[in-house]
Write a structure and sequence with these properties.
Blueprint (H helix, E strand, L loop, with lengths): L1 H15 L2 H12 L1 H19 L3 H22 L24 H31 L4 H11 L5 H7 L9 H6 L11
Length: 183
């Protein structure tokens, strides 16, 4: 019953908008997977860029991956298509769905789960070492310990920030006597 009410509401909405917008509304109404793809892609990308927390960035990456999976599956859809298994003695012609996008998505899901597991393991190690998962705090902690150069000293003097030597000299300097040499 609610499907009939929804269809009637859609018909009234489509009749009340101008002809150029009615085509866009009809396309959006029939292409649910592409709308979901766009929303998931935008939300995932925003989460990866805007969030300071590493775990939330990983969640955004998973949303982004899910959007790509949805795009592959939605683009593989064939109206009236059947499975690509032709019985012996059956008709050879017909409309079939390609199994390749489905196989690619299954492989990508396995890779995505592995990537998520490694990223979460790295988050655990980072939290054990530094006590935080915020990227801005981690950046400041790394600057304080000298792992990355401070912005002011590197920008102002052209040095690497940690040793105080100019970048050109540091690149041509001999390796440390105490470290392992590259063979």
């Amino acid at each position: 019953m609610s499907a009939l009410v929804d269809a009637a509401d859609f018909a009234r909405t489509a009749a009340s908008v101008p002809a150029s917008t009615a085509g866009a509304v009809e396309i959006l109404a029939t292409r649910h997977a592409y709308v979901a793809f766009a929303l998931l892609l935008c939300i995932g990308l925003y989460m990866m860029i805007a969030n300071k927390n590493l775990v939330k960035k990983i969640i955004g990456l998973n949303l982004f991956q899910t959007a790509i999976f949805l795009l592959f599956i939605a683009s593989a859809y064939v109206e009236g298509g059947s499975i690509p298994i032709v019985p012996t003695g059956g008709p050879e012609g017909g409309l079939y769905v390609s199994p390749l996008p489905h196989v690619l998505v299954l492989t990508a899901i396995v890779v995505g789960v592995s990537l998520t597991a490694v990223a979460l393991a790295l988050c655990i190690r980072i939290y054990d070492e530094y006590g935080t998962l915020r990227t801005d705090t981690l950046r400041e902690l790394l600057r304080d310990e000298g792992s990355i150069p401070s912005r002011r000293s590197a920008d102002a003097s052209g040095t690497d920030g940690a040793s105080g030597t100019p970048d050109a000299e540091r690149a041509t300097a001999a390796p440390d006597a105490g470290g392992e040499a590259d063979d």
